[in-house]
Design a protein that fits this description.
By secondary structure, the chain is α/β, with parallel strands linked by helices. The chain contains 7 helices and 15 strands. The chain has 2 domains: 128 residues, Response regulator (Rossmann fold, 3-Layer(aba) Sandwich); 109 residues, OB fold (Dihydrolipoamide Acetyltransferase, E2P), CATH 2.40.50.1020. Strands 2-1-3-4-5 form a 5-stranded parallel sheet, with helices on both faces. The chain has a 5-stranded antiparallel sheet with strand order 10-9-8-12-11. Strands 13-14-15 form a 3-stranded antiparallel sheet, with no helix packed on it.
Length: 252
């Protein structure tokens, strides 16, 4: 049985203890490793304990649940909102919450939520294992000096120029190959590479954030900004969500 580490964040002591008791009694898949009633202390707890799941109240002093999530630079966990207010459902969906539980909590609904958490968590593990195996893939390319076996993980982007492609590497070197971008598109792992517009394919591992602003662009770990084709933006956003397992935390 897979066990998920969790943190309960609720400014009311009774709320924290009641949820903990329900999880302990009805959801053995959840291990509560921390409880907190103060949002700013909760941020520190999240960074230190690195939970798989955060059960999060919405109406809290200083920072509400949505503001707390927005204030985190990284969100490598699943979120379940637990609240007495039904009107925040749409916001919860936009925040990519796994579920939205209303107080008083029904233990059967809680068990159903935990099943969702387990399923999503297991799928994330499979995705990471698949990504790891494809990231280790190498491709053989011919060039003016011979041939090179290149690790896909070392490629930041491929830039097309008519019948040639320039491969840009993480060590800031580049290699020009007499091969079209279209030909490369069929030979590189599609789960880590994305053709962001007609002239460039990027490695998703090197994306730090992306934005709709200024026509849409991504920022790479190299500091470079690359334009996102307008017609490809929705596809790119969907690929990034699948790639990260959740919505990208740095999406602006």
């Amino acid at each position: 049985m897979r066990i998920l580490k969790s943190i309960i964040i609720d400014d009311e002591l009774h709320g924290r203890n009641n949820l903990h008791s329900l999880l302990k009694s009805y959801c053995p898949e959840i291990d509560v490793i921390g409880k907190c009633g103060k949002p700013f202390e909760a941020k520190k707890m999240i960074y230190e304990l690195k939970p798989d799941v955060v059960f999060l109240d919405i109406n809290m002093p200083q920072l509400n649940g949505f503001e707390l999530l927005d204030s985190l630079s990284e969100k490598d966990f699943l979120t379940v909102f637990v609240t007495a207010h039904a009107e925040f459902g749409i916001q919860a969906v936009k925040a990519n919450a796994v579920d939205y539980l209303l107080k008083p909590i029904d233990y059967i609904e809680l068990q159903q939520t935990v099943k969702k958490l387990i399923s999503i968590s297991e799928n994330k593990i499979v995705d990471k294992e698949t990504r790891s195996s494809t990231t280790e893939k190498k491709i053989l390319v011919s060039h003016s000096e011979g041939s090179s076996l290149i690790a896909c993980a070392d490629i930041v982007k491929l830039e097309g120029n008519n019948n040639y492609t320039v491969i840009h590497f993480s060590n800031k070197k580049s290699l020009t190959v007499a091969k079209t971008l279209k030909e490369f598109e069929t030979s590189i792992p599609e789960d880590i590479f994305f053709r962001i517009h007609k002239a460039e394919i990027i490695n998703l591992n090197y994306v730090t954030d992306y934005t709709h602003r200024d026509g849409g662009y991504v920022t790479m770990k190299t500091g470079e900004r690359i334009e996102i084709s307008r017609r490809r933006f929705q596809d790119f956003e969907a690929v990034m969500k699948k790639f990260s397992g959740t919505s990208p935390s740095n999406h602006k």
